[in-house]
Design goal:
binds alpha-L-arabinofuranose; about 500 residues; alpha/beta; seven-stranded antiparallel beta sheet
């Protein structure tokens, strides 16, 4: 099978905001406890944070981490996680039917972020609480001193404010599963009032209102329209979430989910434009895709805990999807979609980062390792920074439940002017055919291939485990050539590739 692509230096989509490679950590399962925090672990630092996990996260160059939830945030009292540890209350977490020790709170998380070298995106609780807790939490985090909450922060050991700029106004408030779930008008008014109060403290905050939990919600996309009508001038981003599932074991449909993702983004981009025009506003609102990933492998095994049949365990294994090779392709496709929609998607978070639907897994007292999906996320985060190219792509395709035409070749291209490197991320969705791909590089000086990585496997269900950490891992690619401005590359069936060209 043949595919052809034109990559012209002058035809671009947008500068990619580095923050599309963000991540998410929630007080859920073993994400915090045994994930990032395990004081008894042999690699733990003075703060009880696992050093092996810190190293794996650092490698990903994650620009920021969203915290503390997720569904968890909608009944969370952030004040429970400050002050002397032995005086912090144990609370019941209604979202996941577990107990929360509060051993980790904002101070510990902020210190961990500083060690990792990442920023924080914080969420306020607009489920069980509202404007008051939001303004207090903001003052605690960002005011230098001389007020009740900022002085309490100083007393608790942190002199300088953290100056967190990125804030989520609640989480998935359209979902009936959410503590304090609201309809779009109720939520829109609350979000607007909270945003106004937060902006009275600091006009330069970047605020994110809740959009839909997924594009199958009955309220979608009216939810976005109504919420935007209430909040438009007070916010900067509307959040979207989407999880990819393959219960039917239908790879063709599964790998076409990125077409559904693209349509979802397109619809909300249009909704933003609609509300902007209706309001005759010049204000700009973008999309924060602050939860996305594959999530379905662990659903069945989680049922007993989530339904409350095991009481209120502390940090049980929950949402521990073990990712396979097929998921590498899906995660690569999602990341390519964010690159191609970088004109409207300015923030995105892989959900989540450690143990809970995560690229990094840990064993209590044992090793930490990279799941299969770590690699496409790693390559996009490290090499997918710069300007997204508007590629012209000709590829045969197939019909799926999500789209009439899903091309077998999926490709995104990024030009980094500062380094003089063009990077292509390519996925072959075909089960048996190799795609011989020609990429015509136009407007670039003659180039050389710097790096070529391939991920492929004879078994779509192959996984990495603690004892077999490299079963699904990138290898050096062979046979890519660059002659007279044309890059030729062969994509084996079901493969992910990255090619970097010095131009
Ligand atoms: O990431 C897991 C959960 O998925 C989050 O808590 C929630 O926001 C979403 O439904």
């Amino acid at each position: 099978m043949q595919a052809s692509v034109i990559a012209n230096k002058e035809y671009t989509i947008s500068e990619i905001d580095d923050r599309v490679y963000g991540a998410f950590l929630e007080h859920l399962g073993r994400a915090i406890y045994e994930g990032i925090y395990e004081p008894e672990h042999p690699t733990a630092d003075a703060n009880g944070m696992r050093g092996d996990v810190i190293e794996l996260v650092k490698r990903l160059n994650v620009p920021f981490v969203r915290y503390p939830g997720g569904n968890f945030v909608s009944a969370y009292n952030w004040e429970d996680g400050i002050g002397p540890r032995d005086q912090r209350p144990v609370r019941l977490d209604l979202a996941w039917h577990t107990s929360e020790s509060n051993a980790v709170g904002i101070h510990e998380f902020a210190d961990w972020c500083a060690t990792v070298g990442t920023d924080m995106m914080l969420a306020v609780n607009l489920g069980s609480r509202g404007v008051d807790e939001a303004r207090n939490f903001l003052e605690y985090c960002n005011h230098p001193g001389g007020s009740y909450w900022s002085d309490l922060r100083i007393k608790n050991g942190r002199k300088d404010p953290w100056n967190v700029k990125l804030w989520c106004l609640g989480n998935e408030m359209d979902g009936p599963w959410q503590v304090g779930h609201k309809d779009a008008h109720e939520y829109g008014k609350l979000a607007a009032n909270t945003a106004r109060a937060m902006r009275m403290f600091d006009k330069s905050l970047e605020l994110v209102a809740c959009g839909s939990s997924n594009s199958d919600m009955v309220t979608y996309p009216d939810w976005e329209r109504i919420v935007l009508e209430h909040t438009f001038e007070h916010i900067d981003h509307i959040s979207l979430h989407m999880y990819f599932r393959n219960y039917e074991k239908n790879t063709a449909n599964y790998l076409a989910l990125s077409e559904k993702l693209d349509r979802y983004i397109d619809t909300i981009a249009a909704t933003i434009r609609y509300v902007r025009s209706k309001k005759k506003s010049r204000h700009k609102v973008f999309i924060s895709f602050d939860e996305w990933n594959v999530w379905y492998h662990s659903n069945q095994q989680d049922r007993a805990i989530r339904d409350g049949h095991q009481g209120w365990p502390h940090a049980p294994a929950l949402l521990e999807d073990i990712y396979n090779f097929e998921d590498v392709l899906m995660v690569g496709l999602a990341l390519n979609t964010f690159i191609r929609r970088s004109d409207v998607v300015k923030i995105a978070c892989i959900a989540q980062l450690v143990n809970v639907i995560a690229p990094i897994m840990t064993e209590r007292g044992g090793p930490a390792w990279a799941q299969t999906i770590y690699y496409p996320y790693y390559y996009a985060s490290i090499h997918g920074r710069g300007t997204a190219l508007q590629l012209q792509v000709k590829s045969p395709g197939y019909e799926s439940v999500h789209a009439d035409h899903t091309p077998y070749l999926d490709i995104a291209g990024v030009h980094n002017e500062a380094t003089g490197i063009v990077t292509f991320f390519l996925i072959n969705r075909h089960s048996v055919e190799t795609i011989r791909t020609e990429v015509a590089l136009q407007g670039f000086t003659q180039g050389t291939i710097l790096e070529h990585k391939v991920m492929t496997h004879s078994n779509l269900e192959a996984v990495n485990t603690a004892t077999s950490q490299q079963e699904v891992a990138p290898r050096d690619g062979k046979g890519a050539a660059l002659t007279e401005g044309t890059l030729t590359i062969e994509l084996p069936p079901y493969s992910y590739q990255m090619v970097r060209v010095k131009v």
